[in-house]
Design brief:
Helix content is about 25%, strand content about 50%. The protein has two helices and four strands, in the order H-H-E-E-E-E. Strand 3 and strand 4 form a beta hairpin. The longest helix has 20 residues.
Length: about 120
């Protein structure tokens, strides 16, 4: 079962990386048009500029209750078990690297692969 979950994670995990890869060679302004302005922009030691976008993800786990009724004569006994439930959240950063171009903007030259739960 665990092997199938890892495989499923790998298949679903390509999404963000594929989207980021699609911007390589394009002007950074295209990313801004699609996702809004970055939350951070900074120079890297190798001369590239890193642009970062941030996303908070919140989720709710459903609750399931199973009840079993047993009867004897005119008496009924109910036994219930509740599974799941709860709320969680995590934070994702998406980083694109770019070089200055002749138009006075930046051309995307690469990206940082997101954490597995951010794919």
């Amino acid at each position: 079962m665990k092997k199938y979950m890892v495989l499923l994670g790998m298949l679903l995990g390509a999404c963000a990386s594929q989207i980021m890869q699609s911007y390589v060679g394009k002007d950074i302004s295209q990313v801004v048009v699609d996702y809004g302005p970055p939350v951070a922009q900074f120079k890297m030691p190798d001369g590239r500029t890193a642009f970062q976008w941030h996303q908070n993800v919140a989720y709710a786990m459903p609750t399931t209750t199973n009840s079993y009724v047993t009867g004897y004569g005119n008496t009924a006994t109910v036994s219930s078990t509740t599974y799941g439930g709860g709320v969680g959240s995590y934070s994702c950063f998406y980083t694109l690297y770019a070089q200055p171009n002749k138009q006075g903007s930046y051309t995307v030259v690469g990206f940082e692969k997101p954490k597995i739960d951010c794919e």
